[in-house]
Amino acid sequence: MFTKLQQWLSAIFLYASFWLSSFYDKLPLTLSDPWKEIIFASPIYFLITFACFSLATIGYRVAIFNDCTEASEELKKEIIEAKKDLEKKGLKIS
Amino acid sequence: MATGSDRSVGYGLVALALSIFTYYTVWVIILPFVNDDHVIHQYFLPRVYALILPILAGVIVLSALGGTIAVILGRPKKQKTS
């Protein structure tokens, strides 16, 4: 099977060859000017899309971030238990 | 539950990302199909700036990062006192 790296590289090469052939007017298609402009700007557009997606993901994760109060109480209890246990066995904890 | 300020900052970031994405999509994808004398062109800079501004921002951010890293790595190392 193909690894993720190979998949990404082949997709990027495919896209780059398409973009370059459009840039040098080698495509066997007659595209109207708006389409040419869009293809010309598409790398930056994908970059901006990726940036917006990353920003939105960070924002969403910040918004739903939880305070784990129960887990913190449980952890404190377990620390006390462990300290008692270790002191019983002769370890000094400052 | 996240605190109120966390939630407002988080959803604010999501809203900011969505609005930038919408504005940029209209600017780059839809505007080439709209006639040049249409009213909507008042609200957007000429389309060259849709390419120049991100590239400029990228260059500034990358050079700031590189400069910071260079300054940090170029600092003389602290002598270890043993």
Question: Would you write up a description of this structure?
Answer:
The complex is a heterodimer of chains A (94) and B (82). With 94 residues, chain A is mostly helical. Chain A has one domain. Chain A is 76% helix and 0% strand. Chain A is built from 3 helices and no strands. Chain A has helices at residues 4-23, 33-63, 69-88. The mean pLDDT of chain A is 89. Chain B is mostly helical and 82 residues long. Chain B has one domain. Helix content of chain B is 66%, strand content 0%. The interface between A and B is medium-sized, with 25 and 28 residues.
Main features:
heterodimer, A: 94 residues, mainly alpha, 3 helices, 76% helix, B: 82 residues, flat
Radius of gyration of chain A: 28 Å
- The secondary-structure element order of chain A is HHH
- Broad shape of chain B: flat
Bulk shape of chain A: elongated
Structural class of chain B comes to mainly alpha
Mean pLDDT rating of chain B: 87
Average pLDDT taken over every residue of chain A: 89
Q: Can you summarize the main beta sheet of chain A?
A: none
Whole-Å distance between the termini of chain B? 48 Å
Number of strands of chain A: 0
From the alpha-carbon coordinates, what is the Rg of chain B to the nearest angstrom?
Answer: 21 Å
Binned, the helix content of chain A reads over 70%
In what range is the share of β-strand residues of chain B? Answer: under 5%
Strand elements of chain B, count? 0
Q: Number of domains in the coordinates of chain B?
A: 1
Membrane topology (chain A): Multi-pass membrane protein
Function (chain A): Stabilizer subunit of the dolichol-phosphate mannose (DPM) synthase complex; tethers catalytic subunit to the ER.
Organism (chain A): Capitella teleta
Subunit structure (chain A): Component of the dolichol-phosphate mannose (DPM) synthase complex.
